[in-house]
Amino acid sequence: MKAQILKSFGGPESFELSDVPKPVPSAGEVLVRVHATSINPLDFQVRRGDYSDYVPLPAITGHDVSGVVEAVGPGVTNFVPGDEVWYTPQIFDGPGSYAEYHVAAESIIGKKPSTLSHLEAASLTLVGGTAWEALVVRAALRVGESILIHGGAGGVGHVAIQVAKAMGAKVFTTVREANFEFARSLGADVVIDYEKEDYVDAILRETDGHGVDVVFDTIGGNTLSRSPDALAQLGRVVSIVDIAQPQNLVQAWGKNASYHFVFTRQNRGKLDELSALVERGQLRPHVGAVYSLADIGLAHALLESRNNGLRGKIAIAVEPQAHLVSANV
Length: 329
What we know:
Low-confidence stretches: none
Radius of gyration: 20 Å
Strand content: 25-35%
CATH class of the largest domain: Alpha Beta
Pfam families: ADH_N, ADH_zinc_N_2
Main location: cytoplasm
Order of helices and strands: EEEHEEEEHHEHEHEHEHEHEHEHE
CATH architecture of the largest domain: Alpha-Beta Complex
Subcellular location: Cytoplasm
Domain Enoyl reductase (ER): 10-316
Oligomer: single chain
CATH superfamily of the largest domain: Medium-chain alcohol dehydrogenases, catalytic domain
Mean pLDDT: 94
CATH topology of the largest domain: Quinone Oxidoreductase, Chain A, domain 1
Helix content: 25-40%
Distance between the termini: 30 Å
Organism: Pseudomonas segetis
């Protein structure tokens, strides 16, 4: 099979398209023909060596799969060849998704929503699971609460807006002015141009000084230290960014704030919850660009570049028909 092999840590040119043996499923595992994958910040962080202690080289990386079951190992009961599936590979635990085939444990695989193409499904697995873990599991966002989502036009942010609205929250988000209408189309109630206005000032103005119940950090920087200024009492801050520099959180003490740090855990349950939202028309990923498996390096370079103008996700078509929705729709 064809696969993109990360030969060394470094820039987008570090990948090499190679022929490698097709994997064979063991007991409890499923062999999937990958129709599509996608690119996340985690992917270029792995490529440049941020997690070098956990990724022995050479390696097949990638963290999203949408495809069709090719074969199943002994003991698999939930899937048969021909099933359309989606999932996030177990991060740092075996080969990733930049390949024509992938093997995964049955327990982390879900049935792909029939209304999504493979490109769309592969653009939702990791970011959707991350948004669900952050807002539902960790922040415990409730009906009638308010949330500030940083980076609402990005891969995780544009999904988080839709999940938060489905949960009955009032959504504030920071985006560039060019993305105002896009954010509103996802369900954002208040959009803030982070290039022209301080988000804390905007939140306090829009909430009459009360603040929001939850801040969802997808951007890093000084968000952890500044978030308490925009929080209501007993507010929660959830971050998916690995921030190395120390930050002063003394302001959080006065708000009785709680902080949660999320690294996505794989399981079928989250995928099934996301599928329900998709089937009800409350959630749909936005694919902002599509590349081929051979052009993984170009896709990485685009996502990693600043001011790239992207909305949503960059998808990778591994199979030519990946753009098609299931035939049973």
